[in-house]
Fold this sequence. Notes:
single chain; six-stranded parallel sheet
Amino acid sequence: xxxxxxxxxxxxxxxxxxxxxxxxxxxxxxxxxxxxxxxxxxxxxxxxxxxxxxxxxxxxxxxxxxxxxxxxxxxxxxxxxxxxxxxxxxxxxxxxxxxxxxxxxxxxxxxxxxxxxxxxxxxxxxxxxxxxxxxxxxxxxxxxxxxxxxxxxxxxxxxxxxxxxxxxxxxxxxxxxxxxxxxxxxxxxxxxxxxxxxxxx
Length: 201
């Protein structure tokens, strides 16, 4: 069994994409752009930066959007079904959970609001100053600091960007994807939490 599990946050642990897409769509409408939710989600699943650049948001617009989104997330964003139970199962069986995310302090607010602060051994957010994924620096830091053996370590995420960071750090990776990508270096591909659970049986 893997003893060290490094989780991505958005779209992996928490179902935050719908809130993000709804608020971005509203902002774009205010700027005269009528964009389908599906198009926004497609861009966001690549990265937030991709979505911002695709729709021409400047720094001020991005800042306003992040404030509005953070407020809405605290009210409506939830962990994916059965994810908290899986994290606690890993913890109970001598394992450790970690988070690696590009988001900032809102990570801790969402964890606290959902009673999950004690489930993660370390939470690496944007404030820690590591290069963004797919750069493996943050993973390498966690592995060195917590003396993780590569064979006992896995990262879990929902984007190829996450996959590449794990691959470059020399650890296994599980990609969560409704539709398997044409090309990926992921070790495993699952479509739901049930598939994830099999990795820890």
